[in-house]
TrEMBL record:
InterPro entries associated with the record: Creatin/AminoP/Spt16_N, Creatinase/aminopeptidase-like, Creatinase_N, Pept_M24, Peptidase_M24B
Name of the protein in question: Peptidase M24 domain-containing protein
SUPFAM superfamilies referenced in this protein's UniProt entry, alphabetically: Creatinase/aminopeptidase, Creatinase/prolidase N-terminal domain
Domain Creatinase N-terminal span(s) in chain numbering: 27-135
CDD domains associated with the record: APP_MetAP
Domain Peptidase M24, first and last residues per copy: 204-392
Amino acid sequence: MKLKAIEAPKTMLGMSVELTEETIHERLAKVKANMVQSGIDTLVIYADKEHGANFEYLTGFIPRFEEALLVLSQTNETFLLLGNENMKMAAHARIPNKAIHVPHFSLPNQPMDPFVPLLDLLAQAKLDGAKTIGLVGWKKWTTTTEKNETLFDIPHFIVKAIQDCATDATLISASGVMIGNEMGARILNNANEVAHYEFGASLSSTSILNAMNQIDVGKSEMELAGELARLGQPHTVISIMATGERFQYANLYPTNKKVRLGDKISLTCGFKGGLSSRAGYAVSEAKELPDGQEDYVERVSGPYFNAVVKWLETVKVGYPAADVYQMVEDVLPKERYHWHLNPGHLTADEEWMSSPIYPNSPHTLKSGMIFQIDIIPSVKGYAGVSAEECVALADASLRETIRRDYPELHERIKERRRYLREVLQIDIHEDILPLSNTVAYLRPYLLNKELAFVNE
């Protein structure tokens, strides 16, 4: 590991790629197959603005400020239960459906007429005849102290109405149908999906690099955060642009606070398909660091960079997920660096879908997974460090399909891999496809726009 004046990566912005009809059919088939495997005759998928990804996976939209249900049955009937302001979306959904108006899902004080009890509306979706109903919120429960199949992350009034409607049915928690590591329909992506999600990954990394390039003493958090809003696209996380101490007055958002020399800096930006983040100091060189923190590179950011390098040079299709976790523990021990989340998780329409990487995981990494490299050390007395970015895993077959069907994406991936190998000197495996522009690009001194880590 060495700090060196190098060229920055190119800001190559991907194209917005729509999901094809073939992809939607493939998605629906995977979900239906998982229902059969799980013994579920009816699947009920809940959605709201923050938890709409499983619903959107098949419908193509989220219900925004309302709630919604997608009801799938083995008889191939599909119902969309929608509030006042989303009924119009049923006609635009990516899968054929019958729409049922549910005013209960609308905003407070909006019209509830014609009033029909929720119990009866659920009966219109034929839930009263179901035998085994799988409820999908957004979590796959993995506790070791409770019955995970009986934990429901859906509003109680909906669960209660389903129980009252389907009195003879067994209700089970079924988010594993969508995001479970052993069978989840959403954990693997085809070439069309990789191209679809690369747009957001490249957008987030472009935004982060632009913001990093604008950091200077005297600029406000809000001014810099303006670089993190791009092309009218919705964020998957709250954007972070914080200088100095974070969370003053419990605040999560950029303020008028101005950058001062020596400040800690945190930046995060996420769009559908990927998130980018950086953390460091508003300094140009080590001697400008706060007292007692002059060894930040040696103590914190350098070891972190080495862990990211090890991740990129180790991970490949077929690699045991448990070994990824242990590898990070070996090079960046938790006892000293105090990270505690999964060092790599799956991403898609939401920033964090799920993760196969955890202690003693029985899973292997598969072609079609899209990962955030997410290692978060926390060393007391120092600023944080982060270079969270997005990569896909692809075997030879998937790589060839991307080359054939999405040649411009293929060229962007080639350039990103070239930068990693030739400039950052990281020997990434051929299975890793960088979807972000700034994978492993880390500048600890954020006022110095040239100095970054290389693997020397």
